[in-house]
């Protein structure tokens, strides 16, 4: 382990209590079906990253809205995940996921409580949490992940990133895993981001193209991901589900195929992949090994039931084949 800070601060503006229901057969609309298993876990993209970090023995703090006695906060405390919470005086949302034996996943997500008028408070909390204290080091990474709750403006991600940059400059690295209008607004804001982690659909939303083609052809996917680097993004980790992942950096692009697994639930697989990448980065591993760890961790999550997440000890990055993608000489397209 290198001497730099290894703390990963995650920010989940719209966390949830994730209820997962496992069925013995296919989901039948309009029918009564009995579940074989049901679980409830504190969730949200950033929360899931912190869960993987803690399971792997890493250093993390999960920043989120919520009151001390909210089931999400209580669940995180029970699991030994440090938090920095913004009291809001309202219950956090519950999401329901239904999984089938084939790995098919159906999600029903509530909108979440309103954070109207609280963006500045959240930004201050994030910047403070990323700072060094008497009880811990400054953050190595701040990860903004997931959707925005009602009440926050479309440029909330840009505002949050700007708050960290103004307080910490380049001393803290910033990763973003989001989508839709807030993600587009961030890319258009000119704020610098060290890492983004879209999936195929999220990439297509921003730069255009066919998500299915991205999953079939990693060269096409890499060229599309390269266009994000024109928007003040340092590195792109593009997750492609069962097709693996692509990593695009200033030094080139690499692709990694996913291992063959029996998928039980895709809940949290992308979040786990991001956690695997970050843990490999703070351990000082080179880009190819970070990509291999990301794919191995995402695959391990997909092989687990419900919203369970893996520890790095349960992954096999050495079994992941990483190859370099030849960068084309064609001129980059103009940003969409």
Keywords:
four-stranded mixed sheet, single chain, 336 residues, 10 helices, alpha/beta
Measured as a percent range, the helix fraction is 25-40%
Count of DSSP strands: 14
Q: What is the molecular shape?
A: globular
The radius of gyration computed from the alpha-carbon positions, rounded to a whole number of angstroms, is 19 Å
* Biggest sheet strand line-up: 5-4-1-8-9-10-11-12-13-14
Largest sheet: 10 strands, mixed
Number of helices: 10
Structural class: alpha/beta
Intertermini distance? 40 Å
Average pLDDT number: 93
Percent in strands? 15-25%
Order of helices and strands: EEEHEHEEEHEHEHEHHHEEEHHE
Low-confidence stretches: 329-336
How is this structure best described in words?
This protein has 336 residues and is an alpha/beta fold. Helix content is 32%, strand content 23%. It contains ten helices and 14 strands. The strands form two sheets. Strands 5-4-1-8-9-10-11-12-13-14 form a ten-stranded mixed beta sheet, with helices on both faces. Strands 3-2-6-7 form a four-stranded mixed beta sheet. Helix 1 crosses helix 9 and helix 4 crosses helix 5. The C terminus is likely disordered.
Brief summary:
The chain is α/β, with parallel strands linked by helices.
């Amino acid at each position: 382990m290198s001497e730099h800070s290894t703390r990963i601060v995650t920010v989940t503006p719209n966390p949830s209590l994730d209820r997962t229901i496992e069925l013995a057969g296919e989901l039948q609309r309009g029918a009564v079906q009995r579940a074989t298993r049901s679980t409830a876990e504190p969730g949200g993209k950033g929360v899931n990253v912190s869960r993987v970090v803690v399971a792997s023995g890493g250093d993390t703090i999960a920043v989120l809205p919520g009151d001390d006695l909210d089931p999400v906060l209580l669940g995180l405390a029970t699991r030994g995940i440090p938090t920095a919470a913004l009291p809001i005086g309202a219950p956090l949302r519950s999401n329901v996921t239904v999984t089938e034996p084939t790995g098919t996943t159906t999600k029903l997500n509530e909108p979440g409580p309103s954070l109207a008028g609280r963006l500045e408070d959240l930004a201050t909390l994030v910047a403070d949490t990323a700072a060094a204290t008497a009880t811990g080091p400054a953050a190595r990474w701040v990860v903004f992940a997931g959707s925005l709750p009602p009440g926050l403006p479309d440029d909330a991600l840009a505002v949050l990133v700007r708050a960290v940059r103004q307080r910490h400059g380049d001393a803290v690295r910033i990763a973003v895993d989001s989508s839709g209008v807030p993600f587009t607004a961030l890319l258009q804001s000119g704020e610098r981001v060290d890492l983004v982690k879209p999936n195929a659909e999220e990439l297509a939303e921003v730069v255009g193209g066919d998500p299915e083609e991205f999953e079939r052809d990693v060269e096409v996917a890499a060229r599309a991901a390269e266009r994000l680097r024109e928007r003040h993004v340092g590195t792109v980790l593009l997750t492609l589900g069962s097709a693996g992942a692509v990593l695009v950096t200033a030094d080139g692009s690499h692709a990694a195929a996913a291992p063959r697994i029996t998928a039980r639930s895709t809940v949290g697989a992308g979040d786990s992949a991001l956690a695997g990448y970050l843990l490999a980065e703070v351990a000082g591993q080179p880009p190819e090994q970070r990509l291999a760890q990301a794919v191995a961790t995402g695959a391990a999550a997909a092989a687990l039931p419900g919203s369970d997440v893996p520890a790095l000890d349960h992954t096999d990055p050495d079994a992941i084949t990483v190859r370099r993608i030849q960068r084309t000489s064609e001129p980059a397209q103009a940003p969409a």
